[in-house]
Backbone:
C-alpha cells in the first residue's frame, strides 16, 4: 500500500489503521495529531481509524515558535 | 489603632484573567529561535512564564528520535498557546488550529494570519474571517493584529479572547512604535490587550505595560539575547515594573523644571 505521509510517498505493508501507521513510524501517539485526507482523526480513534491506499496523511506535533 | 506597616515584599496579588483562566505572570514567551529546547526551558523558568507559544509542524519522519519540545517544556507546567505562524489565509489558520487542538487537547490559541514575508504584518481581513470560524468552533482566540483601534474593536466584537497588537514587526526588536494607538486599544477593550511582536529589550516591555497592557508576548528579544536566561529575567522584572508603574499612576508631564527641594529656608 502506498501512502502520502507528510507529503512524502511511502510504501507500507501490514498497516491498516492510524495506530499501526504511527507505530510503524516509531512515533509516540500521545505527542502527535493526525489528519487523513484533510479530516482530523481524533486520538481516541487511532486504533480503529482505517488507512487506505493513496491516503494523504499529515502527522504533526508542537515545535518551538513565537 | 496602628496599622501594620507594609513590608517591602507585600504586593497585593495582581492577577489577570484570560478566557476564564487566571494567570499571575504577565509575560508570555515564545519557543522559537533558541539554540536548543534546554535553553528555552531555562529561559521560560527565568521569565516566570505560565504561558508559552508553540508552533505546529510536520513530524520529522526520517528521524523520529529528534528532541521534542514537550520533553523540555512540560504541558502540565505551562499553558501551551498554539500559533498559526506561516499561515497566509483563514483556511490554513483554521486547519492548523484544529490540528493543534487535537494535539494539545485545549482550545486557547493564538491566531495570526500573515500577509507578506517582509514585514509579517497580519492580514486583518483574513484574521477576522478566521476568528469568526474559530469562535463558532468553540475556540478561545487570542488575535495577533495591527495596532488599528478600529479593527481591534471588530475583533473584540467577533469574540476574540484577547487583542494582541504588534508593537513593531515580528522579530524587529524596534519596540512600541505607536504608543498612542496601543493606549487607545487598551482604553476601548474589555478583553485583555497584549503587545505581541516588536519587543527588543526589557524597557520595551515596560513601555507596553505602562500603556496599560495586560501582558506582553515576546520571543526574539529573549532568544536572540547574548544571554537568553538573563534577558528572560530582565523581561520578568520589566513587565512587573511597567505594571506597577501603570497602577501607581504616573505624574503629570511639565514643560519646565519643578524643584524637588523646598525653596524656603535657604541659607
Residues:
Amino acid at each position: 500500500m502506498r501512502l502520502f505521509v507528510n507529503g512524502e510517498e511511502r510504501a507500507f505493508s501490514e498497516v491498516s489503521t492510524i495506530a499501526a501507521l504511527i507505530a510503524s513510524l516509531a512515533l509516540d501517539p500521545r505527542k502527535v495529531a493526525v489528519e487523513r485526507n484533510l479530516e482530523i482523526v481524533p486520538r481516541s480513534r487511532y486504533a480503529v481509524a482505517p488507512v487506505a491506499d493513496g491516503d494523504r496523511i499529515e502527522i504533526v506535533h508542537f515545535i518551538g515558535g513565537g | 489603632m496602628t496599622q501594620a506597616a507594609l513590608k517591602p515584599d507585600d504586593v497585593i496579588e495582581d492577577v489577570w484573567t484570560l478566557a476564564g483562566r487566571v494567570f499571575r505572570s504577565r509575560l508570555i514567551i515564545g519557543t522559537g529561535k533558541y539554540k536548543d529546547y534546554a535553553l528555552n526551558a531555562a529561559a521560560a523558568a527565568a521569565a516566570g512564564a505560565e504561558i508559552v507559544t508553540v508552533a505546529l509542524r510536520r513530524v520529522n519522519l526520517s528521524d523520529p528520535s529528534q528532541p521534542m519540545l514537550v520533553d523540555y517544556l512540560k504541558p502540565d507546567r505551562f499553558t501551551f498557546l498554539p500559533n498559526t505562524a506561516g499561515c497566509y489565509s483563514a483556511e490554513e489558520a483554521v486547519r492548523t488550529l484544529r490540528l493543534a487542538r487535537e494535539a494539545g487537547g485545549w482550545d486557547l490559541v493564538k491566531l495570526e494570519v500573515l500577509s507578506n514575508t517582509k514585514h509579517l504584518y497580519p492580514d486583518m481581513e483574513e484574521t477576522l474571517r478566521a476568528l469568526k470560524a474559530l469562535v463558532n468552533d468553540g475556540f478561545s482566540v487570542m488575535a495577533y493584529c495591527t495596532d488599528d483601534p478600529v479593527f481591534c474593536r471588530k475583533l473584540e466584537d467577533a469574540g476574540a479572547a484577547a487583542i494582541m497588537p504588534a508593537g513593531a514587526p515580528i522579530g524587529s526588536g524596534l519596540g512600541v512604535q505607536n504608543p498612542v494607538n496601543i493606549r487607545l486599544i487598551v482604553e476601548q477593550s474589555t478583553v485583555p490587550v497584549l503587545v505581541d511582536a516588536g519587543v527588543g529589550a526589557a524597557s520595551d516591555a515596560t513601555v507596553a505595560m505602562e500603556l496599560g497592557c495586560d501582558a506582553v508576548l515576546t520571543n526574539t528579544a529573549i532568544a536572540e539575547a547574548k544571554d537568553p536566561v538573563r534577558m528572560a529575567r530582565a523581561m520578568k522584572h520589566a513587565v512587573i515594573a511597567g505594571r506597577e508603574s501603570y497602577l501607581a499612576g504616573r505624574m503629570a508631564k511639565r514643560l519646565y523644571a519643578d524643584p524637588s527641594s523646598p525653596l524656603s529656608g535657604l541659607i
